[in-house]
From TrEMBL:
This is DUF2141 domain-containing protein. Residues 1-15 form the signal peptide. The lineage of its organism: Bacteria, Pseudomonadati, Pseudomonadota, Alphaproteobacteria, Sphingomonadales. It comes from the Bacteria. Keywords: Signal. It comes from Sphingobium indicum BiD32.
Amino acid sequence: MKVLALWAISVIAAAATPTIPSTPDLGKAEARCRPGENGPSLLLDIVGLKDREGRLKAEVYPANDQDFLQDDNILISQGKIFRRVEVPVGQGSTQNGYTAQICVRVPGPGRYAVSVLHDRDGNRKFGLSVDGVGFGGNPKLGMGKPKAASATLVVGTGPTRERIIMNYRRGLLSFGPVKAL
């Protein structure tokens, strides 16, 4: 239980509770894909959603441990890459849970660390017992945040399609997909 609490504090501190007052619109203007746009972007297929409640928040970070899940205000003030797209969960479903799709524009081809939050209660923060989380590369989640290298996706010159598997709390000490995907 103590280890899980430490992991939760790490995730919440890094991803949801900034040390500087957060501005929810940071990173959004550059992030949302426009219809018919063919430049570098991530087309994320979000699979294994627990339900259709709340919103999804996809965020793109520099692909290094120092900046991955860093506060958006800090990244932007330092001129670093940060993108955020928030959408309602939507209505898609499969036999393995609900699905959604998010498109995020990136500044150019390259490597980016990606996180997705299923904010089921809509409070704009990660709730350990309520919300789900997924990362680029679909790393197995342990007791701490994943390394940036395991959550990194490579984007080409056009739209790059990737699959993100959502994970939710299962029992006291584990996170994983709702169903086997």
